[in-house]
Amino acid sequence: MRATGVVRRIDDLGRIVIPKEIRRTMRMREGDPLEIFTGQGGEIIFKKYSMMAELGQFSQNYADSLYRVSGLHCVIFDSDRVIAYTGSGKKDVIGLAASREIEDMLSQRASYFRQYASEKELLPYVHSELKVVGATPIIAAGDGVGVVALVSDGDEVLNDTQKKLLVLTSTLLANHLEI
Predict the structure, then answer these.
(1) Alpha carbon distance, N-terminus to C-terminus of the chain
(2) What phi and psi values does residue 42 have, to the nearest 5 degrees?
(3) How many CB atoms are closer than 10 A to CB 102?
(4) DSSP one-letter code for 96
(5) Beta strand spans in the chain (E)
(6) Closest CA to 77 of 123, 33, 34
(7) Which of 16, 46, 75, 81 sits between 20 and 30 A of 69, alpha carbons compared?
(8) For residues 104-140, b (16+ Cβ closer than 10 Å) or e, as one string?
(9) Does residue 114 contact residue 128 with C-beta atoms inside 8 Å?
């Protein structure tokens, strides 16, 4: 844990303001859920809460299955990080920050399917050499909680079956979260 040098007072309703610089660095937005932990030394620790992170191995199994059936690498994101990945360098990719395009897709609840090979390329995560071929948000209990993306290093476009598999995977993950 590192000190920021910022001191805030608790108001009469028990609230504190998290400074804008920290919210920006931690990629926190208005309405984001936070988990609160206490430490043995009297610390209060706030951590971004991710419904998707609770799925752990379950989401990795879905990513592996989607890879085997679609033939394309699969990346599953929570609201801002990679939580499951199929492909080489898996250990290096888990935990990487999602690209701005993926975050925008989730906030707008919009799907993306590459229509033609020369279309503008979207990166799935920061410093990626792969490009998004198709992606769809995971909507659980009315909230956008993650994104499932198929990625490639080539100029592929999705066929109808791959599109349906992508949508099916996001729907199954959402349904599992709502149980």
Answers:
(1) 35
(2) 85, 10
(3) 26
(4) P
(5) 34-38, 44-48, 73-77, 82-85, 112-113, 131-140, 143-152
(6) 123
(7) 81
(8) ebbeeeebbbbeeeeeeebbbbeebebbbbbbbbbbb
(9) no
Closest by CA position to 74, among listed 157, 154, 144, 130: 130
The backbone region for 5, taken as left when phi is positive above 0, alpha when psi lies in -120 to 50, beta otherwise, is: left
How far out from the chain centre does Cα 119 lie? Answer: 23
Report residue 96 as tokens. 């990487």
Query: Quick one: pLDDT at residue 142?
Result: 85
d(CA 85, CA 93): 7
- How far is it, in rounded angstroms, from Cα 179 to Cα 161? 27
Positive/negative CA dihedral, 98, 103, 104, 109 = positive
Task: Give the dihedral of Cα atoms 87, 93, 96, 98; nearest 10 deg.
Answer: -10
Q: What is the pLDDT of residues 83-130, one digit of tens each?
A: 999 977 777 898 898 998 998 998 899 999 998 877 888 889 988 889
Query: Which positions ≥6 away from 35 have C-beta within 8 Å?
Result: 46, 47, 48, 49
